Amino acid sequence: MTSTPDLAPASPATLRKPVRAPQKGTLRKTSRHPYRAALSTARARTGLVLVGAVVLAGLLAPLLAGHGPTDQSGLSLAGVGTPGHPLGTDDLGRDLLSRVLYGIRADLGIIAIAVPVGAVLGCLFALAAAAHPVLDTLVQRIFDLILAFPGLILALAVTAILGPGRLPVVLVIALAEIPAFGRLLRGGILVQREREYVTAARVGGSSGPRVLVRHILPNAADPLIVQVAVSLTVAVFIEGAMSFLGVGVRPPEPTLGSVLSQSMPYLAQAPHFAAGPLITVTALVLGLSLIAEALNREVRR
Question: Is this structure's pTM higher than 0.90?
């Protein structure tokens, strides 16, 4: 008879290590935030240079402007290069360089308030929608109601109630941004709810609010960074359109839209009148668009 050789006992080194259950502190989905890499691209750097130049010019307006934005002189529609008026003057003899610089300050002040307010309100609505199905339905109807009004119609409706001024512009921009941020965050929450790490967190005993705040939100909020850049671009257009139509900031306080609106009757006679605000708005919008596109491409990888 032939006997089979005895099998040698397995050494501890060859034994498979037991799989450890995930700890509560490691349930959160880990991912490297790609924003630094996105902002290092040529596209994003170009956008940052354009936006930075416009913002810096607005912040340094008191130092760069040689005249007050409402100071009048006897030089009506003076051309570019006029002594003391590098960009010329408007129809009332006001220095165009000063009005463009202070117009940038006014626009930045409005946008810096309106976009964060709209983002915060939109995110709060999204969190309310995630709390209960009834609230979700209610929030969706609120978003639909806001989106039912085009931007200019919404601006005219708000202005008809409050009158022209800075507050209606801020309110219109904030209202326009609420559905954008709210729907984006709500969609991210719905996607992340189905992930395995969320199931593991619930099995581990984490409560619903804790899972939402600690595990779902950090992973669902990444696209909001891209939306901020897009919303800033939209805010520039809304403010410019309202001021252009005369329902924005009241004169004589300058904004880029109001200066551009005042130049329309003099395009053939003094095209430099519109050049300053038009170039500034173009640079600001182009820069923000480049930044948003660079962030969006990197986030989607």
Answer: no
